[in-house]
Design goal:
It is built from eight helices and four strands; from the N terminus they run αββββααααααα. The chain is mainly alpha-helical and about 200 residues long. The strands form two sheets. It has a two-stranded antiparallel ribbon. A hairpin with a 5-residue loop joins β3 and β4. The termini are far apart. The relative contact order is 0.09.
Length: about 200
Amino acid sequence: MPEQIAESLDAGEVAGPFHASVPAQPGPVDSPLDRDKTGVTWLRMPTRLAFPSISQAVGRPRLTGRGAIVALFALFLVASVLSDWTGLGVLTGLGYLVGCALAPLYVRDRALLQIVVVPPALFLSIVLIIQVLTAQGTGKHGMVLSVVEGTLLTLAATAPWLLAGTAASVGIALRRGLMGPLRQIWGELRGDLRALIGRVA
């Protein structure tokens, strides 16, 4: 029996679990199979790992621009309400960061520019709504001061989160092809400027 195994290995065959032999074809230089001095075939780990792209990792994006805006509004609102109830200001900024990072991943390509521009204005509107609903001032003047003060304090407390979320959104959108719509808009603006200059001249 050992002589038969040795002969099968010398003949270029690898013995399987049920004495089934599979021919080991000589592969290229980067073949995953390698044979040591004893003739035993081993699986060699690849030297380079191929990481999937963003589109391969998340699948085909199917979320429209309106759907992404609605999802962001709901996420920002829930995070702001929970932050106000629990007193944990970090929840507001964390909700913004998570929303800005996930929206460009799952939105369609034609809505990338929209989903990058909208979140800051959307977050500001939600902060204003929360401050209006929770204003504690007496009279109209006192309520206005309470809303303005609460809004400024919230924006100041969440400024690092806002910067990080906006940067993450822009970076992911650029990776997915945001430069295409930007070039198109720039080309249209240049055409409009040339037409305007031609009329003035």
